[in-house]
Amino acid sequence: MSIPNPVIEQHQITLSAAAADSHSQLAMKKATEATDDLYNIRDTYFTSDLNKKRSKLQSLSQIALNILDSIPPEQRKLSTQRAMYEYLKGKILDVFPEYSKQAEDHLSKAVKLNPSLADAWLCLGNCFWKKGDLAGTKNCFTLSLSKGPNKRILSQLSMLERRMAQGADNQEEIVADSIKHAKEAIALDVKDGNSWYNLGNACLTSFFVTGAWDHSKLHQSLKAYQNAEKDENMKLNPDLYFNCATVNTYLENYERALSGFEAAASKDPCLNAAEEVQKMLNLFDKLDSLLKAPIKAKRLASLTSSLAEIKLNPSYKRATIDNLLDGLNKTIAVVGKVLYFVKHDNATPLYYVLCDSNQLCFVLTVYGINNTAIKEGDQVTLLDPYFRNNDFSWSEKRYQFRAVRVDFLEQVHVNGKPVPRHHCVRSSIYAQHKP
After folding, report:
1. Does 308 lie in the same domain as 395?
2. Which of 226, 238, 257, 364 is the most buried if burial means most Cβ atoms within 10 Å?
3. What pLDDT score does 12 carry?
4. Phi, psi (5° rounding) for residue 243?
């Protein structure tokens, strides 16, 4: 009969505990990797069959949960280990677009156990966002930032502020905060494409909130998107291409806009990018048809005969469309007759076909003014016109047209009179942002 050796038994217990701890660490690592893979699929796998994507996410989330739950309860006793377990479980359950009470419960436990776990605060905030509790979402983000700066939290806070600006009385102020927080995220990591993408979205939103007039916001947005594209990870994001194409549309860089929408459509069939391409082509075909529509010379002469009688402010020089230079033509005025109001699929901008005193036809695009201010048959004076000579091809068809854009109410006189203030409108906030 052997006599028990306490030293040997203690050594065996120690080895057993070490093996269990090693297994737990390995399982936690694998669970973390499985969760990362799950979110990578969520953010980069796009298909027209949403049920197929959901089924894939359900399968991967169950694998991640099984790995996580293979860790014995006794190995989750330390608060840091328990916090990580609760965080991963909540994050896995929160991968779907709808709100999950289970995910909220697990994430709430995680931040209580480890208030410095920034990613848990981020996921919990997104969970509240899905529930519609925007104040709770902001509280999560600000509490996390009180522990220290974090680029992902700052970017998400910036996105949240754009959402909170919708319908608010102080939209401009809230969106200004969104831009500020987006820039703070970039300052933490200037190479992070997601932070640049977020700044691009913030500047684009600012463009709409301030009345769709400030071109500098569009140029800032475009530059931010271009910086985002330098990050290889962002090249998988179809929303980046969609939003960049939207900016190019408003800058009237039409060929770039078409290319951007087409790229977005190829990456995510569920985006309405292909429809945007078709809407633009329908508009260009209509403009092309109207500009080439035959008008008898006698009638055209009659339509334009009275344009010379329109009196101008002495500080402006009268010009015709063929005298304009590309870009802004300050202290220049062009007088034209409205031949057609061009109906199209988007609410803004408004498109018209005009004819100047030299009987040259051109396109007028109008921002920030409602569609009752200018009507067919009106005489329109365009002050400080922004001119662009468009010449591009798409799908083997060439489009050529001269265009003037108007951004401010003060740039337009109708039938010799300024446009009344009640015709001023603001574009609605553009929202291609996701929690």
Report:
1. yes
2. 364
3. 43
4. -70, -35
Name the domain count of the chain: 2
Q: What is the largest CA-CA distance in the chain?
A: 125
Burial of 143 (0-12, 13-18, 19+ CB in 10 A): middle
Q: Compute the distance between CA of residue 317 and CA of residue 164 in angstroms, rounded to an integer.
A: 46
* Owner of token pair 């005298």: 323
Q: Which residues of the chain have pLDDT under 50?
A: 1, 7-15, 428-435
Q: Which helix (H) or strand (E) is 175 found in, with range?
A: helix 171-188
CATH number, domain of 97, equals: 1.25.40.10
Q: What is the pTM of this model?
A: 0.85
CA torsion angle 320 322 323 327 (round to 10): 110
Residue 72 lies in a domain: yes
Show which of 216, 236, 256 is a domain's final residue.
236
Q: For the CA atoms of 277, 280, 282, 288, what is the dihedral angle to 10 degrees?
A: -130
Name the nearest CA neighbour of 256 among 398, 397, 392, 411.
392
CB 271, CB 245: distance < 8 Å: no
